[in-house]
Amino acid sequence: MGGAERELHGLMQAIGQAARAAAASLAVMTPQQKDAGLLAAAKALRASAPTILAANALDLQDAVHRGTSGSFLDRLRLDGARLEAVAQAVEDIAVLPDPVGRVLAHWTQPNGLMFERVATPLGVIGVIFESRPNVTADAGALCLKSGNAAILRAGSESFRSASAIADAMRTGLQQAGIPGDAIQLVPSKDRAAVGMMLQGLDQNIDVIVPRGGRSLVERVQAEARVPVFAHLEGLCHIYIDRAADLAMAKAIVLNAKLRRTGVCGAAETLLIDRACLASHAQPLVAMLIGVGCEVRGDPAIAALDPRVVPAVEQDWHTEYLDAIISVAVVDGLDGALAHIARYSSHHTDAVITDDKATAERFLREVDSAIVLHNASTQFADGGEFGFGAEIGIATGRMHARGPVGVEQLTSFNYRVRGTGQIRP
Amino acid sequence: MGGAERELHGLMQAIGQAARAAAASLAVMTPQQKDAGLLAAAKALRASAPTILAANALDLQDAVHRGTSGSFLDRLRLDGARLEAVAQAVEDIAVLPDPVGRVLAHWTQPNGLMFERVATPLGVIGVIFESRPNVTADAGALCLKSGNAAILRAGSESFRSASAIADAMRTGLQQAGIPGDAIQLVPSKDRAAVGMMLQGLDQNIDVIVPRGGRSLVERVQAEARVPVFAHLEGLCHIYIDRAADLAMAKAIVLNAKLRRTGVCGAAETLLIDRACLASHAQPLVAMLIGVGCEVRGDPAIAALDPRVVPAVEQDWHTEYLDAIISVAVVDGLDGALAHIARYSSHHTDAVITDDKATAERFLREVDSAIVLHNASTQFADGGEFGFGAEIGIATGRMHARGPVGVEQLTSFNYRVRGTGQIRP
Predict the structure, then answer these.
(1) Cα dihedral B200, B201, B203, B204 sign
(2) How many angstroms separate the CA atoms of A330 and A317, rounded?
(3) Among B203, B230, B257, where does a domain finish?
(4) Do B368 and A227 touch (CB under 8 A)?
(5) Nearest residue in chain B measured CA to CA from A356
(6) Is residue B198 domain-shared with residue B301, that is, in the same domain?
(7) Residues in chain A closer than 8 A to B107 (CB atoms)
(8) For residue B252, which of B319, B182, B325, B190 has the smallest C-alpha distance?
(9) Quick one: DSSP state of residue A228?
(10) B207 touches chain A (CB under 8 A)
């Protein structure tokens, strides 16, 4: 280890220890204390608006000098209205029900022992994000609400903005009597800091949440020695069954593909039951092409319309995140299930049908975090689930799956009340 | 990679793929199918008794030749009665409620979308164990009941016994129409196979459960690239509060320390409130020494009785698993909480008090998988929790915590039913 790396290592270890200490104190706080802290943080964000916007202007200036693209700049940019929305989001999180202390189950054994399974914080959550500076506030607030300390690592592009936001929030927290170390931003842009976080900072990080593009998530999943809440991609399917209402199918496909093409819940592949090829496939394909969506189809679909681009094997594996959709004809529900089992990213898949038995089998047999019947895949979002806010969507099967809101940021323990019971 | 290692690698990859395929078929089986498989496996265990006992005799013979100790031989030994108990345990697991398909939560959003959170299998569970051959049947049955495929790796000492048990169970499963690959035993004694399992067999193992001594668990926790359900140790504390009923305290301490000293729920450290040093400490210490338990005490405890061994710092860190207990005087509940926060293994800790407020604070503030009020720490057991059986006890905060029974071997997904909803 060189001198600079040793210094960074010491810094990161200290951050981990401070987070663990803050987590111990957060774990026993009342809901009122945490909520007061969040409201104070929101207030401090508003009070620090000039500082935050000035820092953001410098980040933007650098990005422009680097020749960064328009959508990137847009993700990075803050203004008065956006900063107000950031503060408002923190207040929205404050008014959610407290996820800690919920009694998840309770029962009494024949010997009189009374068991409770009670939600507790997870501990310390590491969040690694890229360009959106608002993640600092969102993720920090979600962690605090769930009684967890947060270690946030911003991308170098949004580093000044994220630092100014974190500073404001810490000031607010401290004014409300909450340790500022509840929300720490890694003060170094060195990429080695990410590697150290992925190793868990000497068991002082309990879970990592990456917020960013595919290459970030891939690195995190490959290197992390601690659990990760993430999804690599959302390769979402819609299966149009022979018993689908055509008007509903058209409305849902249009929404699922094109409402926003860049979100993980956007549909990427349409599967059409061979039994309704004549009645449903042609109008669906015509509709999509008509609104400017490229259709890449298998031979049966390509035969319907000369504007269809022939699909190749890679298309079934591709999350386009664009106005492109792959379309395959399948042999009924079994064909759809087989296609999804082979290509799905286990994120979100939907069936459109008026046949209840088909719908129930699809819901039961598709092994994805979210499965929908007669609804758009773009509902794959914690807000739409009623979770208030989400820190991300997970496709792993452990602990959290689907949208990760404040409830999913908790663990639990067993509290057992006796009257002197001993074990025979 | 040498030739032998390459061959083993190919074998282990094939085991992983076969397990994943079996898991996909288990995931959609009815409870009746799985239960019929378990009953057939139990029947096959009984029918194969001569083969299993002959295999066990060879394992025992080798162990004796190696000069292995009495308690090890006892863990390894099977006889007719023990094998009947193994078969009975599989039948007991068959009659548990099915953990898959439970509706864990359900709600409707204002737009009419109906959400369900439903329990699903985890996938493929790797179980690495040492000398007890019955783990093959227990773990295999728990995984199958929860819809998971199991990859079992037996220690070389119990390899023949475990193989015979696994063969019998696979025969039973296949007779009931369940893929035999639902329960696979690694057919190699090469320790490199364990390393490959810890890497996850190309994402074909979802979680690892180590069943064995500390060195096994340490290796698994250090090397595993997949989640682990385990506890390294059970350094369990009992805090005797000033408001403790002395008779109850004596009965619970006696049971918690000495009912069985070798289990993870055995008490290792007794904390006594300074306010009841005179009334409670002396009789508790005298009782323990009187029944042959070594007491290692801090200066205040050592001053009570010349037979007390002075404790050193290492004692507060030690899980004795023997008739030895460390005893410290603490300044009330705050002192007990501080001691436990510093030394606990986050497994199981208990408070003895008649003061409800003290008990509630202890239950709320001690960050352990199991916290008890007025009951013995030896209740730390899935059977005593009413879980029917457990595959182990976990002290991590992710997914499973405390006893890991069939419910904890499940994940979940979201099933959403709509009537054509699209996202605005």
Answers:
(1) negative
(2) 16
(3) B230
(4) no
(5) B417
(6) no
(7) 386
(8) B325
(9) B
(10) yes
Chain B nearest C-alpha distance from A314 (Å): 21
A-B Cβ pairs (cutoff 8 Å, strict)? 185
Which of B411, B290, B369 shows the shortest CA–CA distance to A118? Answer: B369
B345's tokens: 């293994």
Query: Mean pLDDT throughout B10-33?
Result: 97
Write out residues 1-60 of A within 8 Å (CB-CB) of B.
Answer: 24, 27-28
Choose the closest CB to A364 out of B28, B115, B414: B28
DSSP letter assigned to residue B331: S
Has residue B395 been placed in a domain?
A: no
Domain span at residue A314 reads 236-384
Q: Does A102 contact chain B (CB < 8 Å)?
A: no
Q: Is residue A389 part of a domain?
A: no
Q: Is B163 helix (H, G, I), strand (E, B) or coil?
A: helix
Question: Per-residue DSSP letters for A66-130?
Answer: TT--HHHHHHH---HHHHHHHHHHHHHHHTSPP-TT-EEEEEE-TTSPEEEEEEEE--EEEEEE-
Q: Which residue has the tokens 């911003």?
A: A154
Put simply, the chain A residues between 106 and 165 with a CB less than 8 A from any chain B CB are: 107, 109, 113, 115, 120, 122-123
A420 occurs within a structural domain = no
* Signed CA dihedral, A105, A111, A113, A114: sign only: positive
Whether B414 is covered by a domain: the verdict is no
Q: Which long-range contacts (CB under 8 A, 24 or more apart) does B7-15 make?
A: B8/B188, B8/B190, B8/B192, B8/B193, B8/B196, B9/B196, B11/B187, B11/B188, B12/B186, B12/B193, B12/B196, B12/B197, B12/B201, B13/B201, B13/B202, B13/B204, B15/B151, B15/B184, B15/B186, B15/B201
Q: What is the DSSP string of B221-233?
A: HHH-SS-B---S-
**Is residue B262 less than 8 Å (CB to CB) from chain A?**
no
Using a CB-CB distance cutoff of 8 angstroms, which residues of chain A are in contact with residue B101? 364
Q: What is the CATH number of the domain that holds B201?
A: 3.40.605.10
Q: Which among A113, A359, A397 has the least Cβ separation from residue B379?
A: A113
Contact A416 B386 (CB under 8 A): no
**B417 → closest Cβ in A207, A373, A411:** A373
Q: By the CB < 8 Å criterion, does B80 face chain A?
A: no
Strand, helix or coil for residue A201:
coil
Are residue B212 and residue B251 in the same domain, yes or no?
no
Best interface-test mutation with B: which of A204, A264, A381, A417 has the largest number of B CBs within 10 A? A417
In three-state secondary structure terms, B160 is helix
pLDDT cut 70: percent of chain B above it: 100
- The CA distance from B122 to the nearest CA of chain A, in Å, is 6
As a whole number, mean pLDDT of residues B50-73 equals 92
Interface probe for A, chosen from B373, B397, B410 (most Cβ of A below 10 Å), is B397
Q: What is the pTM of this model?
A: 0.94
pLDDT < 50: residue spans in chain A: none
The C-alpha of B68 sits at a distance from chain A's nearest C-alpha, in angstroms, of: 31
The verdict on B293 and B171 lying in the same domain is no
Residues B316 and B355 in one domain: yes
For the sheet containing B183-185, what is the strand order?
B183-185, B149-153, B124-129, B207-211
- Nearest Cα to Cα of residue A178 among A206, A149, A209, A199: A149
- How does pLDDT run across B175-215, given as a tens digit for each residue? 999 999 999 999 999 999 999 999 999 999 999 999 988 89
Dihedral angle computed from the Cα positions of residues A364, B228, B237 and A25, in that order, rounded to the nearest 10 degrees:
-80
Taking only the tens place, the pLDDT of each residue in A26-74 is 999 999 999 999 999 999 999 999 999 999 999 999 999 998 877 888 8
Contact B244, B356 (CB under 8 A): no
B243 and B223 housed in the same domain: no
pLDDT value of residue B69: 79
pLDDT above 90 covers what percent of chain B? 94
